[in-house]
Amino acid sequence: MLTPSVLIVGAGPTGLIHALTLLRNGIPVRIIEKQDAFQLGTRGCGMQPRTIEMYKLLGLLPDLLEVKTDPFPVVKFSSPQGNNEEGQVLPMVEKIANTPSRPISTGFMLMQERQENLLRTRLEKDYGVTVELHTELRSFEEHDDHVVAHIVKRTPDTDKDKEETLKIDFLVGADGGRSTVRKQLGLDFLGDDSADLKEIGMVAGDIEALEGTLDQKVWRIWGDTTSNMLSLRPCSIPDKTHINFFIGGVDVDLEKVSSSREEVVKAINAITGRDDIKLGKVINMGIWRPNIRMVSSLGKGRVFIAGDAAHVHSPTGGQGMNSGAQDAINLAWKLALVSKNLSPPSILTSYTAERIPVIATMLSKTTELFHKTFQPASPEKMVEGWRRGYELRMFGVNYRKSGITLDEKYTYAEDEVVDPYRSGDDGTVRAGDRAPDAPKLAPVGQTNATSHTTFFDVFSPAYHTLLVFADPSLHGEAIGGIVETTLGLPSFKDVVKTILVLPQTSSSTNDASTSSADMVLLDTEGFAYKHYDVVADSQRPTIFIVRPDGFIGGLVFGVEGIRKYFGLILKL
């Protein structure tokens, strides 16, 4: 086993995705988890389309499609239902048709238990990396060129602890809201401490619903928080009929309800007005209270935090796990370049600069939904809290004003406002935006339908992809030796791939087939040029530089622009 370059503390989705991204980049890691067993139950279960695209980027989409569930219809009963009266279907998530640029436009449901198992399985299968349970970070010291971590491994069968001192290049805390890494870094965890928030809470957990008791294809809600409220949502775990429950409201004694299984069942029967819901054992249970906080910095020196360690908030809107996944990938590709000595450590400051505005906006949106859901002015107003806006699909998340993006087509006034959640979905395609997909791309010389590919099949978390939109007559000048001439070092070829994209109208591709590009693609249906808003130009190429996280780092028009972009992130 290779000596780990990065120690990851915490084996939830954020830590696991971070580990997989680093390993895809050839960076050895070690993952420790202080819990004695892996998480069971639901927790974060909504996967937004943008996160699903990142699963595709990491090579996980086939695994995900095998275990995902489409969003459940949400049915609300305004009063106890002791009969078969139908409830009100809430307009929670509108199903939107997929498009060529957005092949997955509606999210999935995947319970956290299953997501973590999927990620752990892939880590072990592809790299032989396993999560070390019973293992806790006690402290660390940071040095100029490394970090020393002190960890303790507990032996379940004995009272003896095994202490270990580990030297690594970087330490990443994905260890949740009570993060040891965040606390030892001394990062302030600021947020809403208002008294009215402390008075709100829910008993949340998972419980067995005996087979035949409830339809496992509907999410049911009774009542509202102005008196008492119950949510029962299927967990969709094979061979199990688990139900995720939330019980709360001003008339609910949370401490009493959470004291035993019997009290949970009694509360469910009372709120539903039914006694025919046959329930088994409680899988997990606890009192949830709102905690809305975030840091102003995601790290110091060689130590970083991600996911819940950096931001906690209401689960309304299904943004938490998804934001953690984007933290993980944003940081990982930058750590990989620094670990390979291809980028200066200064690039790591862009992690905070890019993600903090996005997270702050996310907290604002989820808090607004939280108040509508849990503090409605009336039961009727509560319905608004269940409606999920299009921006929560996260297509508009962007880094347009990042210091490591370069845009030679669009400029911004100094005081121009960029919405971190919406601006990337304004109809333009700019540096800092999500890179659109494009299907029906034919490798030159293989134009039959079975050989078609897509941009999402080409992108990788291990390299930058240069999409060079150019007329065939320009390919020699635009592509010839582009990596060597602009970057100067052959080693950069491993982290930069060049794709020549020929327009649909190209009549001859013979010369292009001998290009020094890594791949030459013919845009057979015009989707690529349309989605990237490019008009074939016989005078100059248009080049989109797609980062390893699937965002556009640069939009430039020639060799000088390419050199300038990579000068922002690589040691040239």
From TrEMBL:
Residue ranges, annotated region (Disordered): 421-444
Keyword Iron among record annotations: no
Keywords: FAD, Flavoprotein, Oxidoreductase
Endoplasmic reticulum as UniProt keyword: no
Residue ranges, compositional bias (Basic and acidic residues): 422-437
Residue ranges constituting the FAD-binding domain according to the UniProt record: 5-364
Pfam families: FAD_binding_3
GO MF, any single term: FAD binding
Cofactor(s) demanded: FAD
Protein name: FAD binding domain-containing protein
